[in-house]
Amino acid sequence: MAESETFVTMERRDGNVALIRLDRPKMNAISGDVLNQLHEILVELESDMPGAVVVWGGERIFAAGADITQFGGASGGSIGVGFREALDKLAGFPRPVIAAINGYALGGGCELALACDFRVVGEGAKLGLPEVQLGIIPGGGGTQRLPRLIGPARAKELMMTGRHVKPDEAITIGLADRRANDEQVLDTALAWGAELAKGAVIAQGLIKRAVNEGLERDLDKGLDLEAECFIEAFKTEDAKIGITSFMEKGPGKAEFVGK
User: Fold this and answer.
1) Which of 100, 83, 84, 87 minimizes the C-alpha distance to 17?
2) Is 42 helix (H, G, I), strand (E, B) or coil?
């Protein structure tokens, strides 16, 4: 396939939600081009922030993994760099990011989903990190993000066996957050994104930063980070709106402006 071919697109949906769509037939295998295009879209969105982001691979499949054909002659380091840059950008995006998962989300596809804040799974979804079956390990953040999400013992078991996780188990262990019929996965994720986008999105971004970065620090430094983000939140117009609304009307009635 030509390098100029477009595999990742973005469109604005109602409710100030940006929909990022993976479309690389047949299995949405994640190649260098896919990662580069994802990174470029996220940079573009930073200049005109949405309220939330949904990542979707289509009605049939989220992403079946990294493009194995690109492994030939490549070093693990070169492959890992592309994943690191794109998925770190996604994980650090200062708005809620929701993965809408139909079908397989395996290997690099599962790591893409793990870089999102939340995951909506369809009835036919299967998630997993089966790299061990190739004699390698996850290299797109899986060994770090999965245990932080579901705990180290469960994460090691899933990665050491390479088995697939179905929706019921994914919900139970915290690998997924909401379940929908296959045909409703995207609508469910978009509605969730629109609901979040109505909130104090800058404060949401600061919560995301405090949680994600705080997990990398000891408790004292994490509390320092929280204090820093707390101060930043008070500088926003939304904080003034929220506090005034609470005083005048009670909780839950503020209409935020995202500033």
Assistant:
1) 100
2) helix
Burial group, residue 226, by CB count within 10 angstroms (0-12, 13-18, 19+):
middle
Catalytic residue among 11, 111, 183, 237: 111
Tokens 């600061």 -> residue: 206
Banded pLDDT at 254 (limits 50, 70, 90): confident
Q: What is the CA radius of gyration of the chain?
A: 19
Q: What is the pLDDT of residue 67?
A: 84
Confidence of residue 75 (pLDDT cuts 50, 70, 90): low
Inform me whether the pLDDT recorded for 210 exceeds 50.
Answer: yes
For 105-148, the pLDDT digits (tens) are: 999 999 999 999 999 999 999 999 999 999 999 999 999 999 99
Show me where the domains of the chain are located.
8-197, 201-249
CATH of 8-197, one of 3.30.310.50, 3.10.50.40, 3.90.226.10, 3.30.70.3400: 3.90.226.10
Contacts of 199 (CB under 8 A, 6+ apart): 256
169 is catalytic: no
In this structure, what token pair is assigned to residue 143? 């060994």
Task: Give the rounded distance of the alpha carbon of 181 from its chain centre.
Answer: 20
The reported pLDDT for the residue numbered 1 is 39
Instruction: Tell me if residue 157 is catalytic.
Output: no
- Give the whole-angstrom CA distance, residue 124 versus residue 126: 7
Among residues 5, 11, 131, 183, the one annotated as catalytic is 131
Fold of 201-249: Lyase 2-enoyl-coa Hydratase; Chain  A, domain 2 (1.10.12)
